[in-house]
Amino acid sequence: MSGPPRWHRALVTGASSGIGTAIARRLAADGTHVVLVARDLPRLDRLAIELRQRHGVEVEVLVTDLADDAAPAAACRRVAAEAAPDDVLVANACFGTGGVFHELPLEGEEAEIRVNLLAPVRVTHAALGAMVPRGAGGVVLVSSLAGLVPAPRSATYA
Known about the structure:
Layout: E1 9-13, H1 18-29, E2 33-38, H2 41-55, E3 59-63, H3 72-79, E4 88-91, H4 106-134, E5 138-141
Parallel strand pairs: 1-2, 1-4, 2-3, 4-5
């Protein structure tokens, strides 16, 4: 780290794998405390231990399945917490289904919409509601290029 961290605390959804894990690691390496949000407690715990030991940052684990319609409420409360406010939100959680759309179970497609669209909207709304009055903060919305290219058998995702 070359200077003080740009962010004091960041909340990262989808932190248990892939891009979310990489972003959490980068933030922690820069000295930013992190709140890890995902549904996989063992993976979150392993990442939390790694980040604490390697970078000496505070790490909070928030286990939630954003496919559950009520789940974003916990992340919304956390991102807007006054006691330890988040300076940056990284809305990264997502998943995709595949197959012939009309043959896929509708419940899975609706869960995909809740995770990929509704959860980021709700958590971003809560984050901005806390950040704007403070006059500081940032939001990173991670998305896919799938909406820009043909994606047969990925109707809901793309």
